[in-house]
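dumping this here so i dont lose it
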């Protein structure tokens, strides 16, 4: 059985130039703080703002993909989760960090 709203999920692929370290670049964000996620067996890092934590999957030296948005994924509140992802994307754009939002058909209006 799928969780409610599973087809409304989206994430952000975050990437830098090949010779850059994504972790070091994310530390430069002014309104999001890179922190250890501190959930045993989960992702190592997250970006935190206003008590919301966006877990990060580090897929290569220069690539990260957002994963869970806590606490909203626990609460099945995709609207709030998506709002924070949009805020993060704007912050990444402002910092000059490449990012691309992947969205479900519903999010794309299909």
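and the seq i came up w/
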């Amino acid at each position: 059985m799928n969780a409610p709203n599973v087809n409304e999920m989206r994430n952000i692929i975050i990437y830098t130039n090949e010779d850059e370290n994504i972790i070091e670049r994310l530390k430069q964000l002014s309104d999001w703080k890179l922190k250890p996620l501190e959930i045993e067996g989960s992702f190592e890092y997250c970006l935190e703002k206003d008590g919301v934590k966006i877990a990060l999957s580090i897929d290569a030296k220069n690539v990260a993909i957002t994963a869970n948005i806590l606490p909203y994924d626990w609460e099945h509140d995709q609207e709030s989760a998506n709002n924070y992802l949009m805020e993060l994307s704007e912050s990444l754009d402002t910092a000059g960090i490449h990012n691309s939002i992947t969205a479900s058909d519903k999010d794309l209006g299909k």
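The mean pLDDT is 88.
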